[in-house]
Fold this sequence. Notes:
The chain is mainly β and 434 residues long. The chain contains two helices and 29 strands. Helix content is 4%, strand content 45%.
Amino acid sequence: MTEIVKGGNLPVPGQVWRIAVVRRAAGDGVPEVDASALLLDAEGRVRSDGDLVFYNQPAHASGAVRLLGQVRDEERRVADWLEIDTGRVEPDVRRIVITASSEDGTFGRVPDLHIRTMSAATGEQLALYEVDDASTETAFVLGEFYRRDGAWKFRAVGQGYDSGLIGLAEDFGIEGRDPEPGPGEEPAPAGETAPPEAISEELLAKVRAAEAAVQAPDRVPAQRPARVGPGSGIELFGGDFPEFVRSGEDSTTLTVDVPIPAGYVVVDSTRAGGGYFGVESLDKKGKSNGLLANTTLEDYEGRGLLRYDGKGPLRLRVSAGARAWTLAVRPVTTVERLGRRARGRGGDVLLYTGPAGHLSSRLRVGLDHARFLVQGYEPDGRGHLLANVASRLPRDGSPLPRGPLLVQVESADGDWSLEVGPPRPSRFWRRDAR
């Protein structure tokens, strides 16, 4: 790891990075601190309010930047973790700035404030910048990632503001404002989202290390009846093709040998027993470019979504230890429709064809905490983050675009529910209840 001073910069190799905004935990006079990120164009401005990733908007629509959650340790330190995937950064985004802000006090009262950057692929710590000159500021630009000669670099900035997150964001072009309630209207109530608590890599490693080897009988993923038909918009997402089914034991890589047209496909998978189970698609170089299953649920049966470009064979990698599994690659016409409500367990994909509304999502888990991720996809591949929370009782709410839209329950180690309601007024800056 390289420690740098204010103004220093260094290259950051790789495609996906994890960034920790670390400080002393709140209490005993230390104020609460929030981490956020802004995606900026060549003029140093956001293109829209959607380019701010913060507590009420925890992921960018492109999927390039997201807040992963918060981790605390026994030494009363706390870290907000962010992730940047440069493969998803749009071409007109030139810089990504990482910020910290406080509504409760100044940064002169926040000990041990620093930012760390590490490789998501290797875990190698790439950069460390410690803020040692904070005083009356209520917001900081800690550092920035920027493009230079086709590569990415990190710069330690350390610029303070005395106007909090709102003032800082406005300096970069954010215009988000909570609308005033109309006559007879009540402000939208604060959500019930629990505080984000990301599952640490150490905890996940312990879970995997403690898994017992379980032999599971072959089970063919159930062929779900098509619930959608002509006129539903499903034909915009992908065409029909013969299903591909394979079973096996242990970890392996598969090549799908049936002709598949370009578009979306679904991958159904089952694994009896417990332990870690993962399925991911591979690019031409054999690198992962999408998770289709990522779970420790027992007796898992779930569905993942993949956007296939139609170029070259589709390859899948299975991580299953010594356990038996079965995969089925099927056309998107096999998905079911999302009406007013839906319930399930594990991964799933649904088709929404209704008007714009509001999606309330909830996950019930048996662990201390878990991550709940729900995404929506338009026929052209445009993505919408519909739920992204890690907590003991994960629940979230977000605007639901007008259909047709494929709704993917992507990370859900437990029983989940979705409920579609009418649109709600925006509350851009108002914090959801912690």
